[in-house]
Amino acid sequence: MVVFKFVLEKKDSESKARIGYFETIHGRVETPIFMPVGTVGSVKTVTPHELKEIGAQIILGNTYHLHLRPGDDIVNHFGGLHKFINWDKPILTDSGGFQVFSLSELKDLTEDGVTFRSHLDGRKIFLSPEKSIEIQSNLGSDIMMVLDECVPYPCEKSYVERSIELTAMWAKRCKEAKRNFWQALFGIVQGGVYKDLRKISAEQIVEIGFDGYALGGLSVGEENNIMYEITEFTTDYLPEDRPRYLMGVGTPEDILECVERGVDMFDCVMPTRNARNGLLFTSYGKLHIKRQDWKMSDDPIDPHCDCYTCKNFSRGYLRHLYKAGEILALRLNTIHNLHFYISLVKEIRNAIKNGCFKKFKREKLEMFKIGGD
Ligand SMILES: CCNc1nc2cc3[nH]c(NC)nc3cc2c(=O)[nH]1
Ligand SMILES: [Zn+2]
Fold this sequence. Notes:
Blueprint: E1 5-11, E2 18-24, E3 27-31, E4 33-35, H1 48-54, E5 59-61, H2 63-68, H3 72-77, H4 81-85, E6 91-93, H5 97-102, E7 105-109, E8 114-117, E9 124-127, H6 129-139, E10 143-145, H7 157-177, E11 184-189, H8 195-208, E12 212-215, H9 224-235, E13 244-246, H10 252-260, E14 265-267, H11 270-276, E15 279-282, E16 285-288, H12 308-312, H13 315-323, H14 327-353, H15 357-370
Parallel strand pairs: 4-14, 5-6, 6-10, 10-11, 11-12, 12-13, 13-14
Antiparallel strand pairs: 1-2, 2-3, 7-8, 8-9, 15-16
The chain binds the ligand CCNc1nc2cc3[nH]c(NC)nc3cc2c(=O)[nH]1 and zinc ion.
């Protein structure tokens, strides 16, 4: 019985942009989509109710973090992540691969798996494809990600060549380890910034066959134009009838550029992390709430925004809260930034539907530049 089904509704006539949706047992997700990041089972400072009000359709959980704390066995005891965090819409969990390589003190990487020390208490942990699938099964996410090796940027081509073989072998083992029919599994294409290796990795991962395909190894420090070029190149080797997920991306500009190059799914900590640092996204570019300019301003963050924050509070008040270190500042800023991202992808979906995506993208990018900053 197939539960996860992606439906491609319309392809843009002027680019590789497209609109569609996929079904999970926790509901439908429209694409292109932006997924708020809820690393340890919470999208920082906002409640599930507020996430729904903002229009979030799916959120992310991190396997590495949840395995370390509270433990995926504890989450399973509460009936899985949906019940534990009281979020009844879709959840995507990553496989732990990225955090292990980026957060922890890597001990040992072999064909069997990776051994690392917890960044919390130094405990030695072993993560294999089978273990990652076991953890994600305990969490009960709607979409699981395979365990892969995300190579750093820059990275020697000879190392990347060997790494994509490991990533393909681990992807196969993840698929073999999957038990629950209702959990989808996405493969991850690697290959660094080398187009010939990207083509090989894409063909290997598509050959194994997954419910969706992620572009890994990007947004790891490379220049934007390299990320766009590798994205443009790689999506041509991915099946049109499956979602494409560009991990860790990105700025509003990145999302517009990568939707144009055939990407359907995005996740990024930018809206939530920047909010907590007082950096707000507006139709005219970025706004630093702590600036002196806003001290006496009775304007909302963004005159075109209809989020709770923009409908109820002035820049002057938000600046005051932020300067005073009030927790409410973090919450109101996060509500606005998430609403900005989720509204952006909603407008993108409409523009593709109405056949004016290229024009919409050009106008949006122009407006983002007005504010400067
Ligand atoms: C599912 C875990 N694997 C996995 N996660 C990732 C998360 C990323 N996040 C960013 N920029 C913020 N690049 C990423 C690449 C990968 C990647 O290549 N692999
Ligand atoms: Zn707003």
